[in-house]
Fold this protein.
Amino acid sequence: MTTRRASVRVPASTSNLGAGFDCVGLAVDRWLTASVTVPPGRESIVINRAGRLATVTLPPEQDLLYRGFRAAIQAARFAWAGDLTIDAVSEIPVGYGLGSSAAAVVAGALLADAALELGLPRERIVEIAAGIDGHPDNVAPAVYGGAALTVRTAGGLHVTPLTVAPELEFLIVVPPFPSDTKSARAALPAVVPFGDAALAASRAAALVQGLATGDGALLAAALDDVLHVPYRRAGVPGYDDVVRAARAAGAYGATLSGAGSGVLAIAPRAAAEQVGLALLAAWRAAGVTAELLRFPRPAGGAAVIHTPRATHPAPLETT
């Protein structure tokens, strides 16, 4: 087999958006870029990380880039063994509710698909990555871009794009302390009162319609989640003050980005500057220097950006 190479870029994502728990996500303009070199030879795995991934130190078998790569090969039933070098640089904060894990798994799967010409459709990439990451609400927008609703059906995951009104702006304020997604999930109760479940369903519907129309009243209701945020917000010191500050400055509302610790606010564009300043000021009042990320529109989806190949590549063997 000749040497194969590919490069991809995958966006960050914010998920839940309040009432869209585990089903709604939005791609945002922060990116993980990765490349792979697959020369012939005995299997040797090298993963070089830079940017926000520079502090990630894991053996290859636990690294999400490599796990995505291997899962794609297995899904395509490909027989492969060889040296492998993955170089990845990310501007996605790790541990702040911005889908860094989903982006890494998607990148690995797409690298395998592009470099080895597996021919996997994008919906299969979503299934593969969600099976590893466990968060299809992050995986779907990372793959397709924009806003997406992902529903588990008897036939598997079904992803549909959501309309986002052009006058909306999304702001995420990131404190200097990460959140542990597993601990945030463990904080959730096994059951909730029936009334809360009914209210959560109505607010999820309000989220979809509010995003599409820019209706502030619907978005305010949708961002005031009753299903998961009440049980998680205590894990983010200063959360309540930050949310109040966003609303007072003109945001329709604010909520956890994913499981936190980032806080997402949705605002009309005319108020976005003041909302951003208020978010930072609220953290400063709590003695925290936070980072503000502003997104005037959803980002595009994952893309293969480079696939140089030998002039006469040898055919790959399939099982």
Q: What stands out?
A: The first strand starts at residue 4 and ends at 16.
